[in-house]
Write a structure and sequence with these properties.
Blueprint lengths: L1 H10 L4 E3 L9 E5 L2 E12 L2 E2 L5 E2 L2 E8 L4 E2 L3 H11 E4 L3 H11 L9 E10 L4 H4 L4 E7 L3 H4 L14 E10 L3 H11 L9 E2 L5 E2 L4 E3 L2 H13 L5 E4 L4 E4 L1
Helix pairs in contact: 3-7, 6-7
Amino acid sequence: MFKELQDDLALGKRKLVDFKESNLREGSYYVHNGILFLLESVTYERESHYKEDGTRVFKDGRTRCIFENGTESNILKRSVEKNLYKNGKVVTQNVDKVIEEFTESFSGITKEDKETGHIYVLKSLSEREEIASLNNLYKIGYSSTSVQDRIRNAENEPTYLMAPVKVESSWMCYNMNTQKFESLIHRFFGHTCLEIDVFDNNEIRHTPREWFIVPLKAIEQAILLLISGDIINYTYDKDNEVLIKK
């Protein structure tokens, strides 16, 4: 498992990101003082509570940490957190495996299933400097018609930044409220939303809210997690440009 994980890191399929308390989960990998380890399990011995003087006592227990160098430890969970805060990293999940699991779960579409629309990801072809100079700028949207029909008049619509667009990814959706789906993905990436004013052909100002500064791979991973329902277990780390399991 450690060898496979090292290969994933070398190939860029996983990343090392800053540790946060909510990142500590059984079955996840971490790096402390340059050594990779697996937090296999936590056996809780104490629940969170407050003492009579108002001091808070946090939930804690013994862990089983297995290190790449062959050693093990039963250090307390709170001590693991403190050590990782000082000098530690979280190893992200393998994106390819997340996509593979999604494909296996959703490959059974039949004629009984109802097509409800398309979720799409677009890249702007605008020549405006403040738009063209932005890396990883994408629009995430929904259409009840084909994506090509929806974007046919993009250069005249403020929602498309009054410029042509390129389709980067799209998903045909079945048996779901796709407008609610779109709202959820926008909320997930809301802290990366592009702040810009666009004027239409009548010089009326608009502020599009569907453009986000996020790598395409992270958007695709988030959409797959939303469809599977697992998105509630993740947050988007804007600084490190990766999805983090809570």
